[in-house]
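lol forgot to send this yesterday, sorry. struct tokens for the thing we talked abt
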């Protein structure tokens, strides 16, 4: 009886064999589930990254939203969601600059995206690249999108524009009380930021401002009636051109001064370096004014100074519109209109 009980507890040989086979099959099914991840864990699942920019055309200083969508390719990637971040860069001309980075959002049931909003895109057409850095399962990838940025048509009384190497910098038209200003800076070897402003009443007083004008009165060292136009650039290698345009009463006064007394009055200019000025019809060296920290003198006409800079030309427009086009040396110039 005891022998029979022991045989019954252990079970017949057929049952024991079946149980062993079942356990072996279960182990065979479990092992691949455990080892599948290490087999592809070295970032072997391929990915793609697509980039969009909204809006694709914008103005200086306006926000542009960059979105990178990261997708995992192929059947092995089913159920795998990429993690990590996307780095955004902008290439314009010959220079590339970093814009920032953003993490890939949780995306189990939605598209896997990283989003960055920037106001730092330069003037011109820029190629924006989003580079996904990958993770333990997913490989790196990148994509690009073009963005076109144009100068502001009316940015107010002050404009600051950032331009990449090899690209001209254009502030667009700045509007003052009765004067407009547009600054165009020649391309620089490096990135540059140009700032231009119209500040009514003036901040600089040119030492050569006081002299009888065509009407017999005197300017008494005070900047020309209207707004003071100034501009500067962070790129010391770039020469510059500034159009200082007056309209209405100011434009008529500017035109009158040029036509009737241009040998005496030709605008006023300040620069951090010495230059040849034109005072009372006589070429002379600019004088350094400690209070302004600039060399200052009236400008000479470009046609009369042998092509030296700074100098000016006069562009007469329709109606009461007149423009002093100032051509400058590299540096940080200020034109006192």
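and heres what i got for the seq, position by position
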């Amino acid at each position: 009886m005891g022998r029979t009980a022991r045989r019954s507890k252990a079970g017949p040989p057929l049952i024991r064999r079946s149980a062993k086979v079942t356990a072996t099959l279960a182990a065979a099914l479990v092992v691949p589930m455990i080892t599948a991840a290490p087999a592809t864990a070295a970032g072997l699942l391929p990915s793609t990254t697509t980039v969009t920019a909204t809006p694709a055309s914008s103005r200086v200083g306006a926000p542009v939203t960059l979105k990178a969508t990261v997708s995992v390719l192929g059947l092995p990637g089913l159920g795998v969601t990429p993690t990590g971040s996307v780095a955004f860069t902008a290439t314009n001309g010959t220079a590339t600059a970093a814009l920032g980075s953003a993490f890939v959002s949780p995306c189990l049931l939605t598209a896997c995206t990283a989003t960055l909003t920037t106001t730092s895109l330069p003037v011109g057409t820029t190629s924006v690249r989003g580079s996904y850095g990958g993770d333990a399962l997913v490989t790196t990838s990148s994509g690009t999108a073009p963005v076109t940025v144009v100068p502001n048509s009316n940015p107010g009384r002050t404009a600051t524009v950032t331009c990449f190497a090899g690209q001209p910098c254009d502030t667009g038209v700045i509007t003052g009380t009765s004067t407009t200003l547009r600054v165009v800076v020649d391309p620089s070897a490096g990135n540059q930021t140009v700032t231009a402003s119209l500040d009514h009443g003036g901040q600089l007083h040119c030492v050569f401002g006081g002299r009888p004008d065509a009407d017999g009165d005197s300017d008494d060292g005070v900047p020309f009636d209207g707004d003071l136009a100034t501009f500067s650039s962070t790129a010391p290698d770039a020469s510059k051109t500034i159009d200082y345009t007056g309209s209405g009463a100011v434009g008529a006064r500017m035109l009158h001064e040029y036509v009737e007394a241009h040998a005496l009055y030709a605008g006023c200019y300040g620069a951090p370096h010495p230059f040849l000025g034109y005072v009372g019809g006589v070429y002379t060296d600019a004088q350094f004014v400690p209070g302004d920290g600039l060399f200052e003198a009236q400008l000479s006409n470009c046609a009369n100074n042998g092509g030296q800079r700074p100098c000016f030309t006069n562009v007469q427009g329709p109606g009461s519109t007149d423009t002093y086009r100032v051509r400058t040396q590299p540096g940080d110039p200020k034109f006192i209109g």
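The longest helix spans residues 13-40. anyway ping me if u want another try
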